[in-house]
Amino acid sequence: MPTSIQSYRHDPERRELTVTFRTGRVYVFADVPEEVARRLDGAASKAAFFSAFVRDHYDCWRVEPGPGSGVPTPVRSAGPEAMRDPPEEWDVVDEASDESFPASDPPSYP
Question: Is-contact 5 23, C-beta < 8 A?
Fold first, then answer.
């Protein structure tokens, strides 16, 4: 299991600690007390605390990203070079629209 933590969140009602690693993998640890999450917040090294006090101490499962999973789906970088099928033509309006996605309003131009 990876040890380089990108982010984490604790749900005190469900007693679940969701940890996202820099690899993009997401694990949920069950029955984690709020005190452990607070100690993780205050730890000088999140990875060292996680290795010593979370990993191998709580049951966990891997969560696949996707709709309804509660796990953010990776987002591509803006611009045609990051697209699977880039358009043949690309102008300033296309660039602004792509950079603003998923904004609710498209950019305006005079």
Answer: no
Mind listing the pLDDT tens digit for each residue in 3-46?
A: 588 889 999 999 999 998 888 888 999 999 999 999 999 999 89
Q: Please tell me the distance from the alpha carbon of residue 28 to that of residue 49, in angstroms, as a whole number.
A: 16
pLDDT score of 42: 92
- Domain coordinates of the chain in residue numbers? 5-63, 74-101
Q: Which residue spans within the chain are E strands per DSSP?
A: 5-11, 16-21, 26-29, 60-63
Torsion of CA 26, 72, 45, 56, to 10 degrees: -20
